[in-house]
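Hi W.,

Here's what went into the run:
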Amino acid sequence: MTRTTGVLALWLAVVGASCASPGDVSPMKAPMPAPAQLPQDGKLRIIAFGAHPDDTELREGGAAAKWAAQGHHVKFVSCTNGDIGHWNMAGGPLAKRRAAEVKETGKILGIAQEVLDIHDGELMVTMENRRTICRLIREWKADVVISHRPNDYHPDHRYVGVLVMDAAYMVTVPFFTPDTPYLTKNPVFLFSEDNFQRPNPFTADIVVAIDDVIEKKLAAVEALHSQFFEGGANGHAGLVPDSKDETAWAARKKTVRENFSKRFAATATKYRAALETYYGKDEAAKVGFAEAFEICEYGRRPNAEEIRKLFPFYK
Amino acid sequence: MASDKARIIVFGAHPDDCEYVAAGTGAKWAAKGHAVKFVACTNGDVGHFAMAGGPLARRRTDELAKCGRILGLTSVSLDNHDGELMPTLENRKTVVRLIRDWKADVVISHRPNDYHPDHRYTGVLVQDAAYMVTVPFFCADTPHLAANPIFLYCDDKFQKPNPFAADVAVAIDDVIEKKLDCFDALESQFYEGGCNATADTVPGDPAGKAARRKKVREELRAAFASKADKFRKQLEKRYGKKAAKIEYAEGFEICEYGRQPGAEELEKLFPL
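Here's what came out:
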């Protein structure tokens, strides 16, 4: 009896304390959620979301290496585990393999990596996924968030774009997902480069020369063995040389390197005018490799001065 | 339109959005005896820095009722959590039934590229209800509309994939004080500052409180004045030389998925 009374008394005390009495609706008396405590190390915090375990490496691996080299904190998140991204293996074993691959790229680039355990090809725009993205951005205390555009070619890419857009602003709302301290400042949200034209083409608002880190970026590409040496979902046995044939492997490696070098060079060529804005005409002409980003309208909108603070790579 | 009175339904994301974009036009329609309903698609229950959940939803419902009285129309909210509106079939059916029950001639909503996910999905849901409201066996429990209403978007500032382009603008100088009174009534959002404010937003002393109330009103006045400049061209089309003197306005863009009104019909439909 005594115990029951004790529990009841405790229950009454807790409930009594948390309920405002009738007529007492002053919002100031309600418990306040806490904002995220920002680290005071003077370093930037960047989180990039890609659809599969290789997407962020291809689109912002260079900028990430440059940020990391200056001591800034960068995290890549793959929103799916990539478990159907191969022509002759799939499921758990492939997911484990690809998680190991991106872990390796994390070491090469000097950044954190996380892979969400969502099936490849099955990412959907759900509230659960919105909350996951919101929590990841808040926990990283991000100044900058990067994702695909919502009109990229693959459904997983598009829905990463939608989910991240839908987390913009909501990360600042204290009682949305109140288990995770909110951000007092909406981060700057950026889209990574793609070639799609409708409903509107990608705009290179920010372009970064990555010549100084191109070897790191190409090393990251090489670490993503299942995708680039073996060809991923659209690959075939003919792409993969005999494991003992060193000459054939060297040739394969050369081909992959050349193909990706061309891709990263094409960005520099395509956005030469934007490079001139950031580097001046003479320097821009010398840039061999680049990465480009578009400012999303739903995040904080940085002016030219803030862009240079967030991308501390320009003179 | 069954009579010379039009029936208008406006969908906003949160309990203040319809007021922000259409309170002036709504009040003018209502004053002429047209039937106007404002619907907030969420209950706004995370829209405050220091209170949330049911109590906030109830508080904001009361705020809407006050706005309804000020404007002479009905302003209500749906019991969906703030920040969690999704383009589900259930929500599409709710929106279809609301449009049909109101026997709407005109439906207004956000564009699907507005800044907040709830705004975007309100836009998507209302777009997805366009045309379907005319299909007899879709939501067969609610009598369908014989004619697809005219669907319009309310104003926003977003540029991609395309900027807002007003097809019609309404001078609201004659009802601006009513519109501003609404934001006084939407106290949790404007006076107290909603979810991005802090405990320091509202001063503790009476003089400070009065100053805060005045400041909020004047900031909003300036915001609605900027719309008259934004829509000056459209105002000139309707008001001629008088347009230069119009101080406050609201603008609307025709959505491609509803009935497409001619210039004359649009002119007649919107109050001067």
